[in-house]
Amino acid sequence: MAWALTPLTEEQRSIQAVAREFAATEIAPHTEEWDRESYFDPAIVGKLGELGFLGMMIPEQYDGLGVDTLTYLVALEEIATVDASIAVTLSVHNSLPTQMLLKWGTEAQKERFLKPMARGELLGAFALSEPDAGSDAASLTTQAVRDGNDWILNGTKAWVSSGTKGEVILAMARTDSPEDRRGARGISAFIVTPDLPGFSVGKKEDKMGLRASPTVQLHFSDMRVPGDRLLGQAGSGFIYAMQSLDNGRLGIAAQAVGIAEAALRHSAAYAAERKQFGKPIKEFQAIQFKLADMASRGAASRALLHAAATAKDRGEHITQFSSMAKLLASETAMWVTTQAVQIFGGYGYVKDYPVERLFRDAKVTEIYEGTSEIQRIVIARELYSR
Ligand code: CAA
Fold first, then answer.
1. Is 369 a catalytic residue?
2. Which terminal residue of the chain, N or C, has fewer Cβ atoms less than 10 Å from its own Cβ?
3. What separation in Å is there between the alpha carbon of 324 and the centre of ligand 1?
4. Which residue, among 282, 239, 213, 306, has the nearest Cα to 100 in the 3D structure?
């Protein structure tokens, strides 16, 4: 049933196979329990690190695998097919903090943070949103004030994936002054680590889905950040975050493609074994049409995602492409998992079968790293910008 839409190279196929095998043997036996217990397993992340999956797009000179975006995404799809929580942990780490350090970090910052992150020894997180700054990310209020060589940060970041385990957090804060607000241009990016005085982990969210991925608030209370933790140029942090989200949204699209693929597989298998009115329900056209539409929409999402990935690897501007891939894949994942629950009927509404979890996991792909409404805004804006 796997859709072979983009001809993959031998290397891409072999990394995809490693991810598939790892997901089937190391993750699948625990997915249900981790979801039920809302348990994040650091050991599994360590093992993924040993395989190089935490440094996928980091060049070998910084201890990464140095593969292209498409290779990274096909591996991510495989993980997401089995466990969307592990997939988002990988996606955030590989797409956001590591890429920010790679693009805008100094050599010293790369040595200290990027290399161990690429080796899987330190897990990355990304802290842009705040309790009152979600879609309107530029309205964030966490304030950084200069104090000698250091910065003092005060504020609360929200919806931070891997926040309880994140050892290197790329956090956005205002560096403009209240008297001279500069909007998006008044925001800078800082490399935050949990050992900084004034850092604390706040509320852990009790989520509908992705229960094995911890999502938390982070509190910065007079948190002293050494001056060499500023990333790139002061005032450019919002631009860095937005550019990184162009990558991040591809990762979320891959996660959504994986969720949809899993829902299709489970539904097709169930339809073949479940009998009603004296025959397997796959014999009924009502079910066949659902499966056909699920497969077609899933294939379209994957095709668009892979096209966006190859455009990125050609060095093209992908802001619009990335938002399109994320929009289509996430809405498809929600639609496909809804059909899956319907095919399973009552059994789809209980935890005996995985489609109930897939349905819950799919929802957030329409929300985080920019809601579907924000993706539509980005796509529409880009129609007029070039
Ligand atoms: N690439 C480069 N620069 C970009 C950019 C991009 N994709 N998007 C915007 N910019 C630049 C603009 O060019 C502009 O620069 P100038 O100052 O030079 O003009 C600056 O950023 C401000 O841009 P806008 O005027 O467009 O800003 P805006 O306030 O209108 O907001 C937005 C734009 C698209 C709505 C943005 O706020 C947005 O994407 N919101 C959604 C937030 C989001 O995705 N949050 C995700 C949270 S992280 C998360 O979920 C991770 C996780 O844990 C899973």
1. yes
2. C
3. 15
4. 239
